[in-house]
Write a sequence for this structure.
């Protein structure tokens, strides 16, 4: 935790400061507004992702450069799809082509705004893509992780397209999409599969490991299977859990709303906690992945938004207890950290 607060978070802050400066110079008002809003409101995504730079060893700074740039693309596009001027799935598909290109060194920049009225972002999205490409261009073992990176990105991109269209089309599209995968993941519901597709953690893990270890096909496959669906699903379900009131006000789709009741939600989140812990046991540095697992539970449930949720205290108590003492440590640690930040100490 000392390393995270003293080394990783400051480096993440420096990277985000650079991209904030770039965003401030975007000529188009709508693009500039959404880029700045995504950095301001979602910087904790980059902080959480930045923890994976520990796996990159001496290349930790390059890992953070990649993680922050890639997550910034994700958050910016999420804002463009959620809060901006389009409900066109063709537009969303073209925008998210940038996330595939960012994982493919040598791929040409494409007209990502082809299907929208606004066009001029001053090269902001293209620069984010090139930054990611440059970070992984000479990555040893890239050929081992590439198919898994692209699988995870493909699921992520599909999700973003289906969940941002007209409200009446969202659930039918997501259910039809899940039907293609249901045979492989019979224990998941359509909304749990969707949540599992919405995380970037597996991508950060693969890239950071490739920077810090000798990557093999076996290790790449093991990382993929360990992170999808359960670690990634736990991540996004917790994210949606704390955002329920905000999403209700904004009219956004929230996967936690599809559980039958609070008891059903608790039981399924406990299932994801259990399966996440099981799936990461065969990875190198399993204690690191356990730290991330417990950290996710502790961090999200320490968010002040939980206090305003129906049965928030009950759910927090149940999940912290089910996850174990390490989650309780992170929960208390993050609450203290947030309190010190509010007081201006940090």
């Amino acid at each position: 935790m000392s390393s995270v607060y003293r080394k990783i978070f400051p480096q993440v802050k420096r990277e985000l400061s650079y991209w904030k400066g770039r965003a401030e110079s975007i000529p188009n008002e709508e693009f500039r507004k959404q880029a700045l809003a995504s950095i301001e409101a979602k910087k904790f995504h980059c902080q959480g992702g930045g923890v994976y730079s520990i796996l990159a060893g001496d290349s930790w700074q390059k890992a953070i450069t990649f993680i922050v740039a890639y997550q910034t693309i994700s958050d910016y596009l999420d804002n463009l799809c959620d809060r901006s001027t389009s409900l066109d799935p063709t537009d969303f598909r073209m925008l998210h082509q940038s996330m595939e290109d960012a994982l493919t060194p040598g791929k040409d920049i494409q007209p990502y705004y082809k299907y929208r009225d606004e066009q001029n972002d001053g090269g902001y999205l293209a620069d984010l893509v090139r930054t990611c490409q440059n970070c992984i261009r000479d990555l040893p073992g890239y050929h081992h992780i590439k198919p898994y990176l692209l699988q995870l990105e493909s699921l992520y991109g599909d999700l973003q397209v289906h969940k941002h269209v007209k409200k009446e089309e969202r659930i039918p599209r997501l259910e039809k999409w899940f039907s293609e995968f249901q045979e492989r993941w019979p224990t998941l519901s359509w909304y749990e599969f969707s949540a599992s597709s919405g995380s970037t953690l597996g991508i950060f893990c693969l890239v950071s490991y490739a920077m810090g270890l000798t990557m093999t096909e076996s290790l790449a496959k093991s990382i993929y299977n360990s992170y999808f669906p359960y670690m990634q699903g736990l991540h996004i379900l917790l994210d949606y859990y704390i955002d329920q009131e905000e999403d209700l006000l904004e009219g956004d789709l929230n996967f936690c709303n599809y559980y039958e009741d609070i008891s059903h939600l608790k039981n399924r989140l406990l299932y994801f906690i259990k399966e996440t812990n099981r799936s990461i046991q065969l990875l190198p540095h399993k204690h690191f992945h356990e730290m991330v697992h417990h950290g996710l539970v502790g961090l999200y449930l320490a968010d002040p938004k939980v206090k305003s949720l129906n049965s928030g205290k009950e759910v927090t108590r149940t999940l912290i207890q089910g996850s174990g003492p390490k989650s309780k440590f992170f929960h208390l640690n993050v609450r203290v950290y947030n309190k010190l930040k509010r007081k201006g100490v940090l």
Q: What stands out?
A: The first helix runs from residue 2 to 24.
